[in-house]
């Protein structure tokens, strides 16, 4: 039946790692994948995660029963608190429906499916550019995807004017996807003042904010600072969706731990929303996995472990920030033509270098450096050892 099935292309992001793995060169560097690496280039399991896992393993009361459709109750409460703030009025007033989902992607998908089924507007505006999976997730959820201007290649900064104009002309009630912090792939975020203007515009037009929070704490090193955009939209009493991922900030990538929170106007609405989320989830995967959510709940509910986590999280964020500095210094030393100040200014895991597709192909061919074709490099995959090699490659790419 499938003899003539077509070969599908590799995923544009995960495919970079496939190509990297095939390259026998000893000097190869993988700056494609969005996963943290240590200075030695190794994946990192946080100490606090190891500790939590030990506690779980040694607790004989832990069994492997199914979780409810909505996931681990403690995990959901603590996750809402983490993103919305411990003193959030929405939480105190019980107007938040939170469900545990399969990491950030699963949370976006469940939110998208819920909207397609229950919201009067099917159009979702996503930034241009955005994480490559966004348009696919929302299209397959049954929404119609449109773009709003976000990045200005001329300034390598935010296209604020274009963003405001595009959201200003969006149909009333449209859904708007916002990266809570550390916009992927550009590393460009609105300032707090700009966020506030975006908020006012969206509220005045009744646009529905859908926050994607994949990097809380990972961008600035502060969990609170990285959630300010979301909390601003909670403080005005309005509705919003928030998809959270613990992949980066707890290093739980493969455990697939995340949460979708829907902030409603009233407690009874949140209750009914939750009942409908169950109908979305049950036929998709029945209920979510228990292990990763138990790790997160163990850490978030213990003051001591929570503090240990924030220290380890900040160390990851700081290492990334120091890689920005080292790369920018290395280009300055080489006298590489062009303005590279955006390497320092951009935020989060990635630098959107501004290198074009040919330059990227050149760097891969001649220097065995792997990255997505849009010129995005993962700063978390760099180390003091590999920075000079990358700087040489960039220098050669822009001068030859
Ligand atoms: N949103 C954005 C912006 C991301 O960068 C990512 C991870 N690359 C995700 C969502 C989802 O990741 P995960 O499903 O692994 O949590």
TrEMBL record:
Annotated signal peptide: none
Enzyme class, broadest EC rank: transferase
GO cellular component: mitochondrion
InterPro entries recorded: Aminotransferase_I/II_large (IPR004839), Asp_trans (IPR000796), NHTrfase_class1_PyrdxlP-BS (IPR004838), PyrdxlP-dep_Trfase (IPR015424), PyrdxlP-dep_Trfase_major (IPR015421), PyrdxlP-dep_Trfase_small (IPR015422)
Cofactors required: pyridoxal 5'-phosphate
Pfam families in the cross-refs: Aminotran_1_2
EC numbers for this chain: 2.6.1.1
Keyword DNA repair: no
Gene Ontology MF: a single term: pyridoxal phosphate binding
Record's keyword terms, sorted: Aminotransferase, Pyridoxal phosphate, Transferase
Keyword Transmembrane: no
Domain spans labelled Aminotransferase class I/classII large: 27-394
Any one GO BP annotation for this protein: amino acid metabolic process
Reactions catalysed according to its record: L-aspartate + 2-oxoglutarate = oxaloacetate + L-glutamate
Remarks, miscellaneous: In eukaryotes there are cytoplasmic, mitochondrial and chloroplastic isozymes.
The family this protein is said to belong to: Belongs to the class-I pyridoxal-phosphate-dependent aminotransferase family.
Subunit structure as annotated in this protein's UniProt entry: Homodimer.
Database matches in PANTHER family: ASPARTATE AMINOTRANSFERASE (PTHR11879), ASPARTATE AMINOTRANSFERASE, MITOCHONDRIAL (PTHR11879:SF22)
Record protein name field: Aspartate aminotransferase
Native species: Stephania cephalantha
Phylogenetic lineage: Eukaryota, Viridiplantae, Streptophyta, Embryophyta, Tracheophyta
């Amino acid at each position: 039946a499938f003899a003539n099935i077509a070969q599908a292309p590799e995923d544009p992001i995960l495919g970079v790692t496939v190509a990297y793995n095939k390259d026998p060169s000893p000097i190869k560097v993988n700056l494609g994948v969005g996963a943290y690496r240590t200075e030695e280039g190794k994946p990192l399991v946080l100490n606090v995660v190891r500790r939590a896992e030990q506690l779980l393993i040694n607790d004989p009361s832990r069994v492997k029963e199914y979780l409810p459709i909505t996931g681990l109750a403690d995990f959901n409460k603590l996750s809402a608190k983490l993103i919305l703030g411990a003193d959030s009025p929405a939480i105190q007033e019980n107007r938040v429906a939170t469900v545990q989902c399969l990491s950030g992607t699963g949370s976006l998908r469940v939110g998208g499916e819920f909207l397609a089924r229950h919201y009067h507007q099917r159009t979702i505006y996503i930034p241009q550019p955005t994480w490559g999976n966004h348009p696919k997730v929302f299209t397959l959820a049954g929404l119609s995807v449109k773009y709003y201007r976000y990045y200005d290649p001329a300034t390598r900064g935010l296209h604020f004017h274009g963003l405001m104009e595009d959201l200003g002309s969006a149909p009333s009630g449209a859904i708007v996807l916002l990266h809570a912090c550390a916009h992927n792939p550009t590393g460009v975020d609105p300032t707090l003042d700009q966020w506030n203007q975006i908020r006012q515009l969206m509220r005045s037009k009744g646009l529905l904010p859908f926050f994607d929070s994949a990097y809380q704490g990972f961008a600035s090193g502060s969990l609170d600072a990285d959630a300010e955009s979301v909390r601003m939209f909670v403080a005005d009493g309005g509705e919003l969706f928030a998809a959270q991922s613990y992949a980066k900030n707890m290093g739980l990538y493969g455990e697939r731990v995340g949460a979708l929170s829907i902030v409603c106007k009233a407690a009874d609405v949140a209750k009914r929303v939750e009942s409908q989320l169950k109908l979305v989830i049950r036929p998709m995967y029945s209920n979510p996995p228990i292990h990763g959510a138990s790790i997160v709940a163990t850490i978030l509910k213990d003051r001591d472990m929570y503090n240990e986590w924030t220290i380890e999280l900040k160390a990851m964020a700081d290492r990334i920030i120091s890689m920005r500095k080292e790369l920018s210094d290395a280009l300055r030393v080489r006298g590489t033509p062009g303005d590279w100040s955006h390497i320092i200014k951009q935020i989060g895991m990635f630098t959107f270098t501004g290198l074009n597709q040919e330059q990227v192909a050149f760097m891969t061919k001649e220097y065995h450096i792997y990255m997505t074709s849009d010129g995005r490099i993962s700063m978390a995959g760099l180390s003091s050892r590999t920075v000079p090699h990358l700087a040489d490659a960039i220098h050669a790419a822009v001068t030859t």
